Structures are given as structure tokens and as C-alpha cells.
């Protein structure tokens, strides 16, 4: 097999979220695993909704993730090519003008359904005479343009779904050009795929029904249809629709929350496959493990808890130098290796270290239950002399256990709450030296 050439084709009308990043990632892993080419195509034919800010944002997000492209181009710079392709299809009699309004088309669909027929366009426009068209034009109507399907069965072997076929007689001739002259997705995409020599189109399964028409357009324009792979769409952890939550899972939001790129990439690469969802160290490893045969047919369930668990795995193994800058942004005092090694096992993200930085170096509000007041006073009296070190907690609680008769949770929890203001956190034997004697004494006295 020759080296694959694939493309990821986002529209710069919003932010990149986990759904379209998954499509980009699968394309990238497949191409790079085979020594191929990954093209970023900016689908900005919708000039009113597309913005430079969104384009810059999606490029920044892909770069942050490490999904670097080998080539890129904008569809808005290629309208001349699309016009030429449309003219060619007109000359072949495969692109024809239609003058029905949206209301008229809706009425036709309802009538067909009421008679038990599929709501397929009836091709009435093919019977229009030049006089009919002139009359519509005089009324101020502008035509939309449909591609005339062959009415035959189109077949392909999908790399995910296996053998597929669509009877093009059972679907409407697709509209390629709107009445305002703007192009829908289909024609520019085919023109670009031919020009860029795309070998594989990898996308979500919601595009399966478009494939028959697109394959016919490829052939009409003298191109060869690429191989296709249609992947199951994402659903939420309960199997429900995912689209409403995508905004909170945009790349800039996840980055701000402290989620690492490799957590996102590891999660999305393994989601819906036969592989276990485990963190990987690099994109190269993910590419070496990728295969379309591993992708299942069931919807891929995205559970944010799995993403956080993967991120925690990476955080727990992260050396101090790798997070030093982030810790400095949290607190200058927290930017030390002793602190990071003490708290990282309790962090799902580096940002979580802020809570522990407040405990170690900031001001906290001690929590002491009424029944523990005397115990905390006793603990204050028994605090070992001298600088607090790694042995202090063990020696201190040992003396307290003997003096008070307390043990287990009843011994340790009141001290943790009084000294940290929390019921959970890093091992007290490790965190206590970070707090330091002065702060320990002050917090016990406030309690």
C-alpha cells in the first residue's frame, strides 16, 4: 500500500472539542503510523460564520496537542476551482437548476410521506423549459443546483463498517449550490480531495449516507473515490446525546483545567476500541498501536472521569522540572521539589496542587469538632520540640496515642482537620514538615 494521504477538515466557526479532535487524531495516527501525510483543510466556505480568530484557535489547539500537519489550505481561496467543477458538471448534464422554495419542497415531502412513499425529490426541475425558468427568474426566484445521481447501487468496503452499499435511487439528488450561489460541503470537498490526492477519508458515521453521492461526484469529475472509514460517534457515559456538553470539553477549556495533551490523546485514541484505555507517553506509541480493525461498531462512550483518571496517572509520574512553571504560577513557595513530591499523588491535575499549597504555605481555617477541643489542646502540649522533620508526625502521634488512649481515625483525623482544614490529603508525615513548626503552633492555638 502506498503511503496514505488524509485530511482533517474543521470549519472555523467554533472551538475544537473532543468530538472533532477524535476525528483529527484517528486521521493523524493512521497516516503517521504508515509514514503518510496529514493535511489540515480549513472549510471556510461559509464566509459569514467563519472567523480568523477561530481558525487561529483551532491551529493553536492542534499544535498544543501535537497533531502537527504536513500541509494546509483554505477553501475560501479556491472558489475558482469549485466554479470550474460546477461548470463541468453542468456541461455533462449532471448539475441542474431547481426553483422550488423551501415551503414547496417541504410540502412535497409531506405529501410523499402521507402516501407511504420515501420523501425523495421527484426531479420535477429536469422537465422545466427555458420559458419556465425565465418565468421563475422574472418572479425573482434564484435556482439551487442539484447533482443528478445515477440511480444505481454504489458499493465500497468501509475500513470500520465493512462492505457498504447505497442505492442512489432511494435518496434525493443532493443540492450542491444554494440559491444564493454559495457551496454546500459536498462539491468543494470532492474537488479538494481530488486535487490533494487524498487516499483515505476518515470521518464520523453520520456521513455514511452522503458517501454514495460523493463517490458518484468523484467519478463524474474524473477522480477516484478514496477509501473510506466511518467511525461511531461519541455518546456520554450514560449513552445519551453528547452534543450539548461539547462546549465544556473544548481544548482551551481542558487546557485551562490542567488536563495534559497526552491524557486527551490517550483517551480518545483508545475510546471505542478493543484496547484498554491507558495513558501513553507519546503520539508515536499511539500511532504504532492504531488499527481500524480495533474500532468497534458500538457508539464510543466518553466518560470525563476516565479522562481525569488518565490525567492523574500522568501527574503522579511527572517530575518536578516538568511542572515547575505551573507550580510557580500557583505559588512561588510551591515551586520546590519537596512540595511536589509530597502532593502529586493526591492531584488529578497540577492545578490541584493549589489546595495543598494553601495548606502548606497559606492561611487555612482549622476545623475542630466540639468533642475534640481537649484533645487538640493535649496535642499542642505534646508537640515535640525542635524543627519538624519526617519523624515528627510518627513520634507525635505515638505520644498522643499513649497519653489519650485514642487510636486510628479518632487519633489522626482531628489533627488533620485542625492542621489542614480538610479531611483528606497527602500523608501528614510528609505535609507536616512543609507546614513548619510556626504554622503548626499557630493553627493549633486557633483551634
From TrEMBL:
Motif range ('HIGH' region): 10-20
One GO CC annotation: cytoplasm
Positions of the Aminoacyl-tRNA synthetase class I anticodon-binding domain: 338-447
Catalytic reactions of this protein: tRNA(Glu) + L-glutamate + ATP = L-glutamyl-tRNA(Glu) + AMP + diphosphate
DNA repair in keyword set: no
GO biological process: glutamyl-tRNA aminoacylation
Pfam entry (one): tRNA-synt_1c
Residues reported in the UniProt entry to bind ATP: 244
Keywords: Aminoacyl-tRNA synthetase, ATP-binding, Cytoplasm, Ligase, Nucleotide-binding, Protein biosynthesis
Keyword Chaperone appears in the UniProt entry: no
GO molecular function: ATP binding; glutamate-tRNA ligase activity; tRNA binding
Enzyme class: ligase
UniProt-listed SUPFAM superfamilies: An anticodon-binding domain of class I aminoacyl-tRNA synthetases, Nucleotidylyl transferase
Motif position, 'KMSKS' region: 241-245
Domain (Glutamyl/glutaminyl-tRNA synthetase class Ib catalytic) ranges: 6-275
Cell location: Cytoplasm
Gene3D superfamilies: 1.10.10.350, HUPs
Entry EC no(s): 6.1.1.17
Record-stated family: Belongs to the class-I aminoacyl-tRNA synthetase family. Glutamate--tRNA ligase type 1 subfamily.
PANTHER family membership: GLUTAMATE--TRNA LIGASE (PTHR43311), GLUTAMATE--TRNA LIGASE, MITOCHONDRIAL-RELATED (PTHR43311:SF2)
Summary of subunit composition and partner proteins: Monomer.
Role description: Catalyzes the attachment of glutamate to tRNA(Glu) in a two-step reaction: glutamate is first activated by ATP to form Glu-AMP and then transferred to the acceptor end of tRNA(Glu).
Protein name: Glutamate--tRNA ligase
Organism: Henriciella mobilis
Gene encoding the protein: gltX
Amino acid at each position: 500500500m502506498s503511503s496514505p494521504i488524509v485530511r482533517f477538515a474543521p470549519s472555523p466557526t467554533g472551538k475544537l472539542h473532543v468530538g472533532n479532535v477524535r476525528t483529527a487524531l484517528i486521521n493523524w495516527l493512521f497516516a503517521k503510523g504508515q509514514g503518510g501525510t496529514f493535511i489540515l483543510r480549513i472549510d471556510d466556505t461559509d464566509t459569514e460564520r467563519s472567523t480568523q480568530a477561530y481558525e487561529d484557535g483551532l491551529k493553536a489547539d492542534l499544535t498544543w496537542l501535537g497533531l502537527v500537519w504536513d500541509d494546509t489550505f483554505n477553501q475560501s481561496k479556491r472558489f475558482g476551482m469549485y466554479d470550474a467543477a460546477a461548470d463541468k458538471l453542468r456541461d455533462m448534464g449532471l448539475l441542474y437548476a431547481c426553483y422550488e422554495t423551501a415551503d414547496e419542497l417541504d410540502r412535497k415531502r409531506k405529501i410523499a410521506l402521507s402516501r407511504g412513499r420515501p420523501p425523495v425529490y421527484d426531479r420535477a426541475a429536469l422537465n422545466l423549459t427555458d420559458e419556465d425558468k425565465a418565468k421563475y427568474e422574472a418572479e425573482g426566484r434564484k435556482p439551487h443546483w442539484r447533482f443528478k445521481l445515477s440511480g444505481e447501487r454504489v458499493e465500497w468496503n468501509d475500513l470500520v463498517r465493512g462492505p457498504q452499499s447505497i442505492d442512489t435511487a432511494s435518496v434525493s439528488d443532493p443540492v450542491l449550490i444554494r440559491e444564493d450561489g454559495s457551496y454546500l460541503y459536498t462539491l468543494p470537498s470532492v474537488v479538494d480531495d481530488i486535487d490533494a490526492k487524498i487516499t483515505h477519508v476518515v470521518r464520523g458515521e453520520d456521513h455514511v449516507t452522503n458517501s454514495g453521492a460523493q463517490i458518484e461526484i468523484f467519478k463524474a469529475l474524473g477522480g477516484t473515490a478514496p477509501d473510506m472509514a466511518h467511525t461511531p460517534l461519541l455518546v456520554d457515559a450514560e449513552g445519551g446525546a453528547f452534543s450539548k456538553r461539547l462546549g465544556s470539553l473544548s481544548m482551551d477549556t481542558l487546557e485551562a483545567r490542567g488536563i495534559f495533551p497526552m491524557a486527551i490523546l490517550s483517551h480518545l485514541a483508545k475510546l471505542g476500541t478493543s484496547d484498554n484505555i491507558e495513558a501513553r507517553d507519546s503520539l508515536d506509541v499511539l500511532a504504532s498501536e492504531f488499527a481500524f480493525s480495533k474500532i468497534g461498531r458500538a457508539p464510543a462512550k466518553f466518560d470525563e472521569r476516565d479522562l481525569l483518571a488518565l490525567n492523574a496517572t500522568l501527574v503522579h509520574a511527572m517530575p518536578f522540572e516538568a511542572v515547575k512553571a505551573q507550580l510557580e504560577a500557583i505559588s512561588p513557595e510551591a515551586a520546590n521539589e519537596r512540595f511536589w513530591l509530597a502532593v502529586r499523588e493526591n492531584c488529578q491535575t497540577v492545578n490541584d496542587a493549589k489546595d495543598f499549597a494553601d495548606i502548606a504555605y497559606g492561611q487555612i481555617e482549622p476545623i475542630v469538632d466540639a468533642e475534640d477541643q481537649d484533645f487538640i489542646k493535649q496535642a499542642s502540649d505534646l508537640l515535640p520540640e525542635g524543627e519538624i522533620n519526617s519523624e515528627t508526625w510518627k513520634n507525635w502521634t505515638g505520644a498522643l496515642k499513649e497519653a489519650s488512649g485514642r487510636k486510628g481515625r479518632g487519633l489522626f483525623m482531628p489533627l488533620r482537620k485542625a492542621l489542614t482544614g480538610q479531611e483528606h490529603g497527602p500523608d501528614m508525615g510528609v505535609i507536616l514538615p512543609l507546614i513548619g513548626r510556626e504554622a503548626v503552633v499557630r493553627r493549633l492555638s486557633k483551634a
